Amino acid sequence: MRRLVATSLAALLLASCGQGDGGNQSAGNTDLETNAAVASGARSQDLAALVGGNPRLAQLVKAAGMEPVLAGKEPYTLLLPSGAALDKLDKATWEGLDQPAQKARITALLRGHILPGTILAADLNRAVENGNGKATIATMAGEPLTVTREGDGLKIAGPGGQSARIVGAEQPARNGVVHEIDSVLAPAS
Hints:
- The protein has one domain (2-181): FAS1 domain, CATH 2.30.180.
- Helix content is 40%, strand content 25%.
- It contains 9 helices and 9 strands.
- Helix 4 crosses helix 8.
- It is globular, with a radius of gyration of 15 Å.
- Residues 44-185 form the FAS1 domain.
- This is Putative surface protein with fasciclin (FAS1) repeats.
């Protein structure tokens, strides 16, 4: 059910952008034509390598066992909390990362920051414009995120009521793209 909701929401976002099929299929989603150009570019690093540049996030990815996902062939969009944002997480998040109970919590947190397919900033801007100032996108966890315009940038509201702004330039990877955000988006539960 969650997979169907995630796929449906991602398809709605992509359809709202007014683009056709770029011939790039990922997890049941039709990616935008602009995404095919990014994927075909000579990107030497994958998402796992880009995450490795942020030691705190790399620690969480390793604890959740999600390195193979971020190093795989399937394209994803990663909303990467800045180092300062990760430093604000409570101590309970960092304690016992090797414990099975903590793995489920960390996995849920990370899945709430990963979107199926490659969604560029231009795609998000188009979706917000076409959605009369608001677009809804689904995370890998199946939870909806709401994207709106804030000044010259984009703001993402998470299911738990918190929000983050996209900061800096997107970082294309061999298997997707990274958008740095200034806050952690906690899961709804």
